[in-house]
Amino acid sequence: MESHMHVGEDTATIRGLPARVGDEVNLRGWVRRHRSSGKVSFLVLRDGTGEVQCVFVKNDVSSDTWERLATVGHEACVAVTGVVRADARAPSGVEVTASGIEVLGPSEDFPIQPKEHGVDFLLENRHLWLRSPRQIAIMRVRDEVIRSIHAFLHHEGFVHVDTPILTGAIGESAGTLFETEYFDLGTAYLAQTGQLYVEAAAAALGKVYCFGPTFRAEKSKTRRHLTEFWMVEPEAAWLDSEGNMALQERFICWIVKRVLYNQREQLDILGRDISKLEAIAPPFDRISYTDAVAFLQANGSKIEWGADLGATDETRLVEGRDKPLFVFDYPKGVKAFYMKENPEDPRTVKCNDLLAPEGYGEVIGGSQREDDHDRLLARIREEELPEASYDWYLDLRRYGTFTHSGFGLGIERTVTWMCGIDHLRETIAFPRMMTRVTP
Ligand code: 4AD
Ligand code: MG
Predict the structure, then answer these.
(1) How far are the Cα atoms of 41, 85, 93 from residue 417, in angstroms, in the given order?
(2) Among 193, 231, 416, which residue has the most ligand 1 atoms within 8 Å of its CB, making it the best to mutate?
(3) What CATH number should be reported for the domain whose range is 17-105?
(4) Cα 377 to Cα 212, 286, 333, distances in angstroms
(5) Using one digit for the tens of pLDDT, what is the confidence trace for 325-354?
(6) Neighbours of ion ligand 2 (CB under 5 A)
(7) How do the residues of the chain divide into helix, strand and coil, expressed in percent and rounded to 5?
(8) What's the CA-to-centroid distance between 163 and ligand 1, angstroms?
(9) pLDDT-derived band of residue 3, with 50, 70 and 90 as boundaries?
(10) Check: CATH 3.30.930.10 for 124-426?
(11) Residue 413 in contact with ligand 1 by CB distance below 6 A
(12) Which ligand is the nearest neighbour of the Cα of 324?
């Protein structure tokens, strides 16, 4: 590896080039595309901040440079020197008239070529696939979603609390646990949720949230399920189910606005229909589970009261709607043990799912928590959960129990919806699914 340039301050960023017209600059990056006509060579350079075309004219560069250019492969890492020129035809308004190039990291036969590849091949090469424009756009949208989540929650007075990933109590359902031996203490589980822990923290801080990876050994190969996904879980004291839905509505509108405002360019790269996101504004419609079932039955579904809504039911419920839809107060039997019994209809619990439009399905699951010690204990027994590991959780109802609610928003489902893409697997850098744990 030869290098006569310094790494660092004298290297310009591609994003900053429009302000450098007329200057000679040094750039570093990877070669997106490269073609040569024999007299002129066009090299598209990508440095993480953007892309720019660098033009080498054979008669204007040294013969060394021209020869070196011929060895530059797709995705090689290079340093280019040249003068920034305004060019109205270029997407960023500039191109570079290049005078020199050095190959810092050669690349021969890059596995991903500019042609159609099967998704298995791309997933196998996920570490390289990440460099493609579509994947870069998705990662930037994800980053924006995450930033906007932290900004919103801090704006609303929530405090970020980290919850454990190795846990002793089952958070959601016994059927989808990853287990691991834990020294002399028996079995530990990878967290399905941080919720039980943020409930404890809410009694200390009032409004809190955790944000981390969660794990579900889901034996489903749908486009909506990962075995490792990221979830943000706000939890607030004095919030009831109604207030919880209002909070979710503000939350979603904030995220969508920020993505639209800051990542318009990436959404364009993804071909996202912007008008679908622009339609997301309060208020969102709310329908009870019971009314939803009646609606579905009237529209040909065979669903019976008491059953969970399937993906097709969810799609039918949002059909013709341009905003998310709250479905609230589900039957006890299809929801987790910790949800508060509905005083007006004890067959149901005070909870909600939020269904995204365009068939993206459930992006949020939330509920008011059971704050009565005896009812909660009865539910733990009904579900045959190991009582001893919930002793600390029951303490929250023994010592100053309080009305509280919270919810979990799935990051990958949200990013999939923002990007308008089909499958969750592209919204996380290294997806974990039933059939994939590498790279
Ligand atoms: O509805 P869920 O299971 O709710 C909870 O875990 C609660 N403890 C949240 C809370 O009240 N604090 O999951 C919440 C969200 C879902 O709406 C979905 O967006 C996402 O997490 N999710 C998944 N995302 C990807 N792959 C999976 N296997 C997912 N399971 C849930
Ligand atoms: Mg759910």
Answers:
(1) 40, 38, 31
(2) 231
(3) 2.40.50.140
(4) 28, 30, 16
(5) 999 999 999 999 999 999 999 999 999 999
(6) 365
(7) 35, 25, 40
(8) 16
(9) very low
(10) yes
(11) yes
(12) 1
